[in-house]
Design brief:
alpha+beta, 4-stranded mixed beta sheet, 8 helices, 20 strands, 26% helix, globular
Length: 336
């Protein structure tokens, strides 16, 4: 258990924003969390922090920050699948690596996504055609109001693209302690998203093993994303744009080369990276914040940036995309 006043959060957020909180509480077990719940319940405001990889701090946080540091993995065999129960404080990519090493499948396309296990269930993280909701079985939580330990099933979370009830009506109601993933023993690779097949083809691989697929995705991500040790960032800052069929038709007439993905409900997903690039923002800098020169979805801390500098850059890009395309692009990160 850690309980510190006046705690600096610079190394608790991947943007590297220098900000402090009034109080920082970290717990290592569910029992520790329950014991601290009366104080957590009375804390106003309260920020539940994961790995800080999906967070932009715009100022010092005058409240209490709570972080789950529960580790551990438990495996139950169910014949064709396994249930892998993980502490919410585990690094998510370590869990993906562990699954691939043990020939449990379904998570390999999520390789190298930063953050912790607990956040995967909140954010419904996703990449290369797979989302966390595809493998999450259930989530164990402690309800802040009552201190009650509960288990929430996947179907009750109303998962959607980068959305869940934890981000909406359940915001601030629960603290996640464990997430259980269901992984298959039968390997069905998903290769038709992004440039996965092209990278595999360059390596002379037609049907990759799960490890080869994981390695390819890791290399693709590293090629596109900045090194956190050099430029702080939160990965993809914006969600991809989703538009209705009429809006899409109008845009496609004006921009016939515009990339898109068709979704099951008839809407179209347009890569926001393309929209930002078309507005001329790729590689540009504003103050101490900038846009990554290889992936326009990623805003970066060029060095010494404040949270407000990053936020101002975000708003400027949003305005330019709206002006050019009539589309409102939304941040994926949690702005505090």
């Amino acid at each position: 258990m850690t309980d510190i006043t006046g705690y600096n959060l610079k190394h608790r957020n991947t943007f590297g924003i220098d900000a402090t909180c009034d109080r920082f509480i970290e717990f290592d077990t569910t029992d520790e969390l329950i014991a601290m719940m009366p104080e957590i319940r009375s804390a106003k405001p309260l920020l539940i922090l994961g790995g800080g990889s999906n967070l932009l701090l715009t100022a010092d946080y005058h409240g209490t920050v709570v972080h789950c540091a529960i580790k551990g993995r438990e495996v139950k065999d169910y014949g064709d699948s396994v249930l892998l129960r993980c502490g919410a404080g585990e690094t998510f990519d370590d869990i993906v690596a562990y699954a691939v090493e043990n020939n449990w499948y379904g998570a390999e396309n999520l390789s190298l996504i930063p953050g912790e296990v607990g956040a995967s269930a909140v954010q419904n993280i996703g990449a290369y055609g797979v989302e966390a909701k595809d493998i999450i079985e259930n989530i164990e939580v402690v309800e802040i109001e009552t201190g009650k330990v509960m288990k929430i099933e996947n179907a009750d979370c109303r998962y959607a693209y980068r959305q869940s009830r934890f981000k909406n009506e359940w915001l601030g109601q629960f603290i996640i302690t464990h997430v259980t993933y269901r992984l298959s023993k039968h390997y069905t690779p998903r290769l038709d998203y992004g440039n996965i097949r092209a990278v595999l083809s360059q390596r002379g691989i037609e049907m990759p093993t799960a490890l080869q697929l994981r390695e390819a995705i890791i290399d693709i991500r590293r090629e596109k994303l900045p090194d956190l040790a050099i430029e702080g960032n939160a990965g993809s800052f914006f969600m991809n744009a989703i538009v209705d069929s009429d809006t899409f038709s109008q845009l496609q007439t004006a921009y016939p080369d515009m990339p898109f993905f068709s979704l099951d409900n008839g809407t179209k997903k347009i890569p926001t990276a393309w929209l930002i690039d078309q507005c001329g923002w790729k590689g540009r800098t504003m103050g101490n914040a900038g846009v990554h020169n290889r992936q326009p979805l990623v805003l970066v801390n060029r060095g010494g940036a404040t949270g407000n500098e990053v936020l101002n850059l975000c708003k400027t890009i949003q305005n330019d995309v709206k002006k050019k395309f009539g589309i409102d692009i939304k941040p994926e990160v949690n702005i505090v």
